[in-house]
Amino acid sequence: MMLIKIENATKEDVLNKDYIISIENILRSFAEEKHLLIAQRAFFKNIIESQGDVYSTSSKHFASEALSGLLEYHSIINQVSFYVSIDFSIRDNSFSWVDLGVRYKFVCGPLFFSDSSQLQKTKIVCENPLDSDFFKIVASFYARKESLSGCSINFIALNGGGGSTKDVFDRTIQNNEIAFCIVDNDKKHPRAPFGGTSAHFIKSKTNKSGLVEILDVHEIESLVPFETIEKVLSDLNLLVKKQESLDFFKKICSIDESAKFYFDHKKGFDLKTALELDNTHGDYWRPILKKLNDDIQCDCIDSKKCDCKPSCLTYDGFGDGLLSNTLKHINQGSLRRYNPPLSPKLYDKWYALGKNFFSWSCGPCKKSRLS
To answer: Which residue in 126, 186, 202, 299 has the most C-beta neighbors within 10 A?
Structure first.
């Protein structure tokens, strides 16, 4: 689901037999709650007032529904980071991406949508089947903040399974299907190179009909608030066992909030790896750890090397099931009531991610009556 804006459509265009199928496809996609639709009032009125059997009764009804919601939906364009512009001055099947700074615009002519398969729910490619479920929660957070909760959020999730994510994305855009791909950066140090799946996507943000977002976090679990992690551990009767790790991670994030976006929430933290990362990419972890000297006595931090076996400073992670258990915990209650406290940087990341995901999955508030 996405926001579609009709541009440069004259009355002659609306009545042009070459475009009628595309226009009816676009109207039906709105009626089926697949996409938001905005245009000049004249566009819808030309459809509604058309004579003869140029447009079906259903299409005229859909145009009327879209016209009635125009004022509400038109303001949303300033609250999204992506939308589709159907420009009637484009007479072929070509398309392009336009970077507007604050948002991306996918520009095409009406003939791009002569096949209704291009107007199904938006396809969003993620690394893990659970990622899109969590992203939808973050999109709902953004919608609440922006008073957009009335809009529906729907999409088709395509799961890449880590290493095959690029292949899934490439197959999706091969036939010019409009698609969004989200991956984490797999970085354990701010100056480390992109790792894992993200390394395959760093050349360009746009590729054919697809757009890629590389999240500025090591893993999706980096976005789970500490308060939620604590409640999840409590649900699993693991809080006592994991309390030392939880306290440690909270302490390093109190020194540098960005640390939350680099340590491995699932596997944990060890000093040996942290110092190796610093020795390769420059100081990051060591200055943070040195500020914990009152709590941690370790000569390896000063020597910048840890030969201890096992590492002298090790904290367990929260396990591979952290994301699935987080989703279970959230879904036990009402999504509207899930409003965890977010630190400033985590809030910024939720807001940006929520805006992007909402932009690719937003639909009309209520279904038009099919007739």
So the answer is: 126
Give the number of other CB atoms < 10 A from CB of residue 63.
29
What are 287-338's pLDDT values in tens digits? 999 988 667 778 888 888 888 888 888 999 999 999 999 999 999 877 777 8
The token pair at 364 is 């009309």
Distance separating alpha carbons of residues 25 and 62, to the nearest angstrom: 11
Max distance between CA atoms of the chain, in angstroms, equals 87
For 301, other C-beta atoms within 10 Å of its C-beta total 23
Q: Is 345 exposed, middle or buried (0-12, 13-18, 19+ CB in 10 A)?
A: middle
101, 135, 193 from 224: Cα distances, Å: 28, 11, 23
Q: Which residue has the tokens 């899934």?
A: 168
Residue 268, Cβ neighbours under 10 Å: how many?
18
- How far apart are alpha carbons 166 and 172 in whole angstroms? 10
Question: What angle separates helix 322-332 from helix 226-235, to the nearest 10 degrees?
Answer: 90
Does residue 169 contact residue 55 with C-beta atoms inside 8 Å? no
Count Cβ atoms within 10 A of the Cβ of residue 169 and give its class: 0-12 exposed, 13-18 middle, 19 or more buried: buried
